[in-house]
TrEMBL record:
Entry annotated with the keyword Transferase: no
Highest taxon in the source lineage: Bacteria
Domain HTH araC/xylS-type: 145-243
GO CC terms of this entry: cytoplasm
Alphabetical list of CDD domains matching this protein: REC_YesN-like
GO terms of biological process kind: phosphorelay signal transduction system
Name the record gives this protein: Helix-turn-helix domain-containing protein
Modified sites of kind 4-aspartylphosphate: D55
Transcription regulation is among the record's keywords: yes
Keyword annotations from UniProtKB, A to Z: Cytoplasm, DNA-binding, Phosphoprotein, Transcription, Transcription regulation, Two-component regulatory system
Domain Response regulatory: 3-119
Classification via InterPro entries: CheY-like_superfamily (IPR011006), Homeodomain-like_sf (IPR009057), HptR (IPR051552), HTH_AraC (IPR018060), HTH_AraC-typ_CS (IPR018062), Sig_transdc_resp-reg_receiver (IPR001789), Tscrpt_reg_AraC-type_HTH (IPR020449)
Localisation per UniProt entry: Cytoplasm
Taxonomic placement: Bacteria, Bacillati, Bacillota, Bacilli, Bacillales
Length: 243
């Protein structure tokens, strides 16, 4: 059975998803649920699920931000659900590697089709994933250096390891392992480090608003920026500027 986590800030929605189908019939089992992306990240770290079904708009950490945090760290697939029909949400979710984008109210048949696609993608990934990191140290080093350079040049943009893996012709899970082994940092943690370093320069050299600085270094949500800044620097951007 493939472990599955449900993430939605509406309790009725979470309970409804648990009961909408017989999950075991399709090879899945619900191993937990969360009401926001931050709780979900803790749950993912503990349970290591194969699939996460998440709402897009949630407090603390959105579904798209959750996908970015998980990318390159854990080998799990995403199905995104939302009550909002705007095409750009679907576009971004699919660009970030989601199996499917399903609008509320959930259609049972569409959910089942998404589960079947999830099984096929997992089977394909398992067949194509190297059993261990190859010993070509030069090639490995060059690939990681290329990724680091790409991050430094594009940190203002949404960055997903799946997209970058295509550019260096590597499996994204394999690249995540390689990146962690060579740099000592997960891909997304490294992205946060680069963004926060750039933000520190802007905080010192300008009087721009915190929200504007957040946007200029790649954070569309200023609260999320403050959260990451505090985690890495030990204080809020405002306090850092005062110092």
């Amino acid at each position: 059975m493939l472990k599955t986590i449900i993430v939605d800030d509406e309790p009725k929605m979470r309970e409804g998803l648990k009961k909408i189908i017989y999950w075991e019939t399709y090879g899945f089992t619900i191993c937990g649920d969360a009401e926001n992306g931050k709780q979900a990240l803790i749950l993912i770290e503990r349970e290591r699920p194969s699939l996460v079904i998440t709402d897009i708009r949630m407090p603390v950490l959105s579904g798209l931000d959750l996908m970015m945090e998980v990318s390159g760290r854990f080998d799990c697939q995403f199905v995104v659900i939302s009550g909002y029909g705007e095409f750009d949400y679907a576009q971004r979710a699919l660009k970030y590697g989601a199996i499917d984008y399903i609008l509320k109210p959930i259609d049972e048949e569409q959910l089942i089709e998404a589960l079947q696609r999830t099984r096929r993608r997992i089977a394909f990934a398992n067949d194509s994933l190297p059993l261990e990191l190859p010993q070509n140290v030069v090639q490995n080093s060059e690939a990681v250096e290329e990724v680091i350079q790409y991050i430094r040049e594009h940190y203002k943009e949404p960055l997903m390891i799946k997209e970058i893996a295509d550019k260096v012709f590597l499996n994204p899970i394999y690249l995540g392992q390689l990146f962690k082994k060579q740099t000592g940092s997960y891909f997304n943690n490294f992205v946060h480090q680069i963004r926060v370093e750039e933000a520190k320069k802007k905080l010192k050299g300008s009087s721009n608003k915190i929200a504007d600085i957040a946007l200029s270094v790649g954070y569309s949500d200023s609260d999320y920026f403050v959260q990451q800044f505090k985690k890495l620097v030990g204080c809020t951007p405002s306090h850092y500027r005062e110092k």
